[in-house]
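Example record

The entry below shows one chain as it appears in the dataset: sequence first, then structure tokens.
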Amino acid sequence: MSIVVDCSVTLSWYIPDEVNGRTRAVLEYVADNGAITPFHWRAEMANGLLVAARRNRIERGFVSTAFERLDLLPISDDLEGMEQTGSVAFGLAEEHTLTIYDALYLETAMRRGLPLATFDKALQRAAQSAGVPVFQTAP
């Protein structure tokens, strides 16, 4: 079964000091089973990699390599969520005190009936409150 992954997870695959058994387990799961991301995920990934490069957490030249590796994974962009930004996602953001970006991950998981993989504690709490399973890996 596919899962919804957010940037806290996918960025961790490419930032050396964040790579650990949990991050690798999610990466392996996605490689084997696929993942869904909301429409804004690629822009959020680009921003996260840019910030990591500016903070010298990754080399600037690695950004294009990271995107090449991401493109090899069975990750599908959920374009249907674009229509949810102003209504459902806004309501979820308000209800759970999330950013719109995080609310879009929650909305995608809810609409698709899929578990959500996130390392963001606030988003994990919101998912649990909304009845969305949080994807768990062994510690």
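Notes for this example: The chain is about 55% helix and 10% strand. The beta strands are 3-5, 35-38, 75-78, 116-117.
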